[in-house]
Amino acid sequence: MNVKKFIANSSREAWRQVREALGPDAVILSNRNIPDGVEILAMANEDMTTLVAPTGARAPSGRPQPASLQQQSGLPPAQQPRRPALLSSPPAQARPARDSAPLLDQPGSERGQGRAEAAPAADARVWRNRTRDSAQRRPATSAAAQQGHEQEQDRPRSALPEFDGKDYDEILSEVMSEIRSMRGVLETQLAEISWGGTQKREPLKGIVLKEMLAAGFSASLSRLITENLPANSKSQDIMFWVKSVLARNLNTLANENELLENGGVFAMVGPTGVGKTTTTAKLAARCVMRHGSGKLALITTDGYRIGGYEQLRIYGKILGVMVHSVKDETDLRIALEELKGKHTVLIDTAGVGQRDQMVAEQDAMLTGAGVDIKRLLCLNATATGGTLNEVVHAYSSSGLAGCIITKLDEAATIGNVLDVVIRHKLNLHYVANGQRVPEDLHVANKLYLADRAFKQKRETAPFEFQEGELPGVIGPTAMSMNDKGLREVSFG
Question: CB 3.0 to 4.6 Å from 57: which of 7, 53, 122, 200, for a disulfide?
Fold first, then answer.
């Protein structure tokens, strides 16, 4: 589309320039008064087809296209509606008075020049022929545009044009990601503002929140419990209620006989250095004291750590139990077939970091052994909550029969490990608090653990949050409050 601009001292001179440059059939797009005279934007009639829209379509500005006005009326220019910005120019000899009136009536136009004479009959015929041709072209253009629109709708998504090398699905995914990010920022800011007001109105909630954070519990769980505090509670009773809620959501063994009497095949799994071998020896001692050494067998898959097999073999020699070493799935299947007459079989696995691909290989070896092996995950109480959360996700792909908390005596806080147990609904069987075999292994007591989380002497003052920092800690928990594990927390 080639649009040209014409500037003249008067409207008559401007019309003359348009006719000389573009011919008598030129299309006037706009005209306006400027400090130097009159400005007209026009285009040749041959370019008119680029502006013809389908029937009923409207221009981006919300007004009909120029050709649509002529096609709808079918009248000569003298009888067209007064829309000078959209009407075509009159024949070359003279412009009809009615059509030129809008331009002449504008401030600064030539009122004294009088009305133009009527257009000759030949020019009228030219106008009618051009109007008829435009009307004939309109249905064809509309049909072609409609057909193209339908083809665009029927075209598969994969065939649609790309934007900067990205298809519509990728763009939609990016837009949704930006919306979620904006939502998270807004929720965080609103949570900070809301908690700041709550802390002033209900200072007891601030005290409880600070205590839970200092004990090692996550901000999301601390906020959930704090928001559900009983109304009109007294400070001396509120912490008892918090401990009761924590204990209620810990799943522990009601009786050790559930594990020792039923027997079966158990595998100690977990990252390196969490105390799997020592825990295996402690459980072995309990089994020997209950059923005798003839009912127990020990297996180790730890072929990576120097002295790993020797450590368990020494424990086995003390207990009078044979220790078998296996390297792969085939060896494990053969060993379990030979030991199927044993009441209890304990397997000490090699320590594998939660981000190591060998976790999947070890899981496949235990799954393909042909025997139902119950996995007991060893959780290090000294690890952070985020690390423990990763460990549970990595080792729970094939299901966990339970967990054992180790190194309880070395942890400055135990709220982190209790938080993970509650969040993932793990069955807590034992807690280990030392290296002595078998003395330092105890059946988990939920009430004791909940109470110890707050009574344990802590030297963590530099890492505890102050009153003014609590709103900033609570704010980022807005998105994590929809965690499935938190939705299942029971308040009694």
Answer: 53
Bridge partner residues of 324 (DSSP): 299
Taking the whole predicted model, whether its pTM rises above 0.70 is answered as no
User: In the block, which residue shows the tokens 């929809």?
Assistant: 482
Q: Which residues contact 229 (CB under 8 A, 6 or more apart)?
A: 204, 205, 208, 238, 241
DSSP string for residues in 408-445 = GGG-S--HHHHHHHHHTT-EEEEEE-SS-TTTTEEE--
What's the domain count of the chain?
2
CA separation for the pair 14, 229 (Å, rounded) = 82
pLDDT tens readout for residues 147-186: 555 555 555 544 445 555 567 778 888 888 888 777 766 6
Across the chain, mean pLDDT equals: 75
pLDDT classification of 296: cutoffs 50, 70, 90: very high
**pLDDT at res. 324:** 92
Quote the domain boundaries for residue 264: 251-443
Domain endpoint, select from 129, 154, 179: 154
Does one domain contain both 143 and 12? yes
- Going from the C-alpha of 231 to that of each of 194, 247, 377, 470, the distances in angstroms are 18, 21, 39, 21
Domain final residue, candidates 154, 188, 214 = 154
Sheet hosting strand 37-43, strand order edge to edge:
3-8, 37-43, 27-34
Inter-residue contact 213 to 219 (CB < 8 Å): yes
Q: Identify the top-confidence range among 11-20, 69-78, 136-145, 413-422.
A: 413-422
Examine the pLDDT at 63 and tell me if it is beyond 60: no
- Please state, for a pLDDT cut of 70, what percent of the chain lies above it: 63
> How large is the C-alpha radius of gyration of the chain?
42
Residues 219, 216: Cα–Cα separation, whole Å: 9
Any alpha helices (H) in 346-482, and if so which ranges?
Answer: 358-367, 385-395, 415-423, 446-455, 470-474
Which SS3 state, helix, strand or coil, does residue 180 take? Answer: helix
Q: Please state the separation of Cα 170 from the chain's center in Å.
A: 14
Short-list 67, 122, 68, 71, CA closest to 94: 122
Structural domain contains residue 219: no
Query: What is the pLDDT averaged over residues 58-77?
Result: 44
Residue 155, helix vs strand vs coil: coil
Instruction: Give CA angle at 276 (271, 277), nearest 5°.
Output: 135
Strand partners, 406: 380
Whether the per-residue pLDDT at 270 is higher than 50: the answer is: yes
